From TrEMBL:
One Pfam family here: Spermine_synt_N
Recorded name of the encoding gene: speE
Lineage: Bacteria, Bacillati, Bacillota, Negativicutes, Acetonemataceae
Keywords in alphabetical order: Polyamine biosynthesis, Spermidine biosynthesis, Transferase
Recorded superkingdom: Bacteria
Active site annotation, chain numbering: D157
Protein name: Polyamine aminopropyltransferase
Function: Catalyzes the irreversible transfer of a propylamine group from the amino donor S-adenosylmethioninamine (decarboxy-AdoMet) to putrescine (1,4-diaminobutane) to yield spermidine.
An example Gene Ontology CC term for this record: cytosol
Catalytic activities: S-adenosyl 3-(methylsulfanyl)propylamine + putrescine = S-methyl-5'-thioadenosine + spermidine + H(+)
Summary of subunit composition and partner proteins: Homodimer or homotetramer.
Binding-site residues for S-methyl-5'-thioadenosine, renumbered to this chain: Q31, E106, D139, G140, P164
Length: 278
């Protein structure tokens, strides 16, 4: 009998994929964790029924959330990743020569363990105990409260603004991120779909631009996520991603390149209007 898995992207819209096999299903202290093998997306992680990442298209999200901020900063050395339990963001961050250390603070140890077992191509840097990497299992919000003038780049690779990730979408959190960054630091956060999460994007843009002098939204095409187009928002103290010099990666990438670094910030009018509050 056919088995299908549906993610309810809005109350009226579901993305349904045919499942070959359920590889893991468990309940952590924070959320329902599952890994299934699907026909379209290959192995994929879901948390509380929400699709998080898949071996089919994970490179798009992870290259774009890591390389855009890391190539905006001219010399990033100390990097923090909040969330990102599948390991994809840290896998990309450690590839930058200038980066000396990557700390990762993920609240849910079960996500890390399960991804190491079932999604090894995504969690490769965690499996290898990469020498640049330090993993802490704990709350990213609390970690940020204690940090000051410490990081060049912070990558907030969080799940949706419900459950343990809710506090990562608040003004208070962005103020702590500002405090945790060095004088020329910058951060990026995944900010959901410009089609289905417009009020969230508008609120985040408003909150971040009230704290950071430079706030920029960029887009990437990611089939797994609602609407197939995903947004990311950068808050920066000094460097503007739209005028950062183009630098060709010294390693292979499948989506990101020096032209994407520029074109990702070219926004359709409906997104511009969203950000200007019209
Ligand atoms: N690429 C994904 C997406 O956009 O759906 C995000 C993937 S990653 C698996 C998100 C991670 O953030 C989850 O593993 C979750 O446990 C973690 N997380 C949520 N709230 C957190 C918090 N307060 N501190 C640290 N990690 C958190």
């Amino acid at each position: 009998m056919d088995l299908w898995l549906t993610e309810w992207q809005t109350p009226d819209l579901g993305l349904k994929t045919r499942v070959k096999k359920t590889l893991f299903a468990g309940q952590s202290d924070f959320q329902k964790v599952s890994v299934v093998d699907s026909e379209q997306f290959g192995r994929m992680l879901t948390l509380d029924g929400v699709f998080q990442t898949s071996v089919f298209d994970e490179y798009i999200y992870h290259e774009m959330i890591a390389h855009v901020p890391l190539y905006t900063h001219p010399n990033p050395k100390r990097v923090l990743v909040i969330g990102g339990g599948d390991g994809g963001s840290v896998r990309e961050a450690v590839r930058h020569d200038s980066v000396e250390s990557v700390e990762m603070v993920e609240i849910d140890g079960m996500v890390v363990d399960v991804c190491k077992q079932y999604l090894p191509e995504i969690s490769a840097a965690l499996i290898q105990n990469h020498p640049k990497l330090t993993l802490k299992i704990g709350d990213g919000i609390a970690h940020m409260r204690d940090a000051e003038n410490r990081y060049d780049v912070i990558i907030v690779d969080c799940s949706d603004p419900i459950g343990p990730g809710e506090g990562l979408f608040t003004r208070g959190f962005f103020q702590d991120v500002h405090k945790a960054l060095k004088a020329d630091g910058l951060f990026v956060q995944q900010t959901e779909s410009p089609f289905y999460h417009q009020s969230l994007i508008r609120k985040l843009h408003h909150d971040i631009s009230g704290i950071f002098p430079i706030t920029r939204l960029y887009l990437a095409q990611i089939p797994l996520y609602p609407g197939g187009t995903h947004s990311f928002t950068i808050g920066s103290k000094q460097y503007d991603p739209m005028t950062a010099p183009s630098r060709k990666p010294l390693f292979d990438t499948r989506y990101y390149n020096e032209n994407i670094q520029k074109s990702a910030f070219v926004l359709p009018n409906m997104v511009r209007e969203l950000l200007s509050g019209r």
